[in-house]
Structure formats: structure tokens, C-alpha cells
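Running this now, will post back.
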Amino acid sequence: IKDANRAARTGEDVFKAQCSACHATGAAGSPKFGDAGAWGPRIAKGFDALLNSALKGKGNMGPQGGGDFEDFEIGRGVAYMANAAGAKFAEPKKPEGK
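Update: finished.
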């Protein structure tokens, strides 16, 4: 059960805990953190497409939704990684009432 009272994690927190295992090194064909060339085509598809891929899984990456993080926190991780490669995505806010 998710703890509604815990502080929402930042994109960097989510990246370190959930995403860095592959994205820090480019393992399993993932776009490496900070690699603008690898992230550029993905960023061009927009934040919603990236978030959808993260939540549902794509290629070698399994679905990230439904785990230890709220969906909006996964979105924060997506924004953090994409922004490190040149995107200008806003960090998702915690949904009201959650």
C-alpha cells in the first residue's frame, strides 16, 4: 500500500532508485543519461509518449508503473532524464487529493 503521507520523490530520487540501473550506463540499449543524441528522437515525441513508454514498458524496459513509485513520480524521473539531455519538460506535480 502506498503511503499517501510520504513526501513525493523528486525526479533525481526516482532516477537513482529506479532508472539508473540501465540509464546510467546505457545498458540493454537504453538511452544513456545525458546523451542528447540518444534522447533527442525520444524527446521529440513529447513527454506524454515518454511517460507512456515508462509506465507500460518498451523494448527491454519492463513496465515501471504500479511499483514503488506513483505514476507522477515515474513522470518526474522521465522529465529528469530527458531534461539532462536537452528537454525542457516541467516536473509533474502531485495530483490533488493523493
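Helices lie at 11-23, 36-44, 47-56, 71-84. More later if anyone needs it.
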